[in-house]
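With this grant's support, we have paired protein sequences with backbone structure tokens. One protein thus recorded is set out beneath this paragraph:

_____
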Amino acid sequence: MTLRVLVVCTGNIARSPLAERLLRARFAAAGVDAVVSSAGTGALVGESMTPEAAALAERYGADPSGHVARQVSPAVLEDVDLVLTATRAHRAEVASTLPKAARKSYTLREFARIVEFLGTDEASEFFVSNGEAPSATVPAGTVPAGEAPTSLLETASMARGFAPPPEEPESDNVVDPYRRPAEVYDEAGALIDAATASIVAAFAAAERAGRGAA
């Protein structure tokens, strides 16, 4: 099955297209069947990526060309399996735009934190205590062939309130670099790089587990 991912920030010209392009390149390299797009809550519709964001995409091995900013909408949100936002405020705006999308929406760093948690002993204990087999920790467990993306999403949703939260809520956010110094772009780029790497690794592990169970 194809995993459909949407990344959301404000203008859809820096953080979200950077994350989109990194996810797209890394899913393809990992052999995960995924379609990744992006949108903005206050999009600068029709604009391309900022030069700084485009340079970061190239630095991290992705192609920045061809991006066109668009506005997030109920129809856009309806058509995806997973929404990853730059900040908690964007996540709240997604839920306001389409309330039922709240259950599939996370900040980028929040979702990375949760899927990293799924590979720990604490996660196994959580699922056992809730009547689930230890294999419910999808990245390390066994998933029916062809069901890995959905299973990982469902497992992440189950663990959402149990994964240890950050010390500061703002740690789930990616700083906004728009019209700010190069150092802020570098900070945002490093956060997006790390989060996307963790997310792709989790889905790739789930895919491998699914193929092994076939």
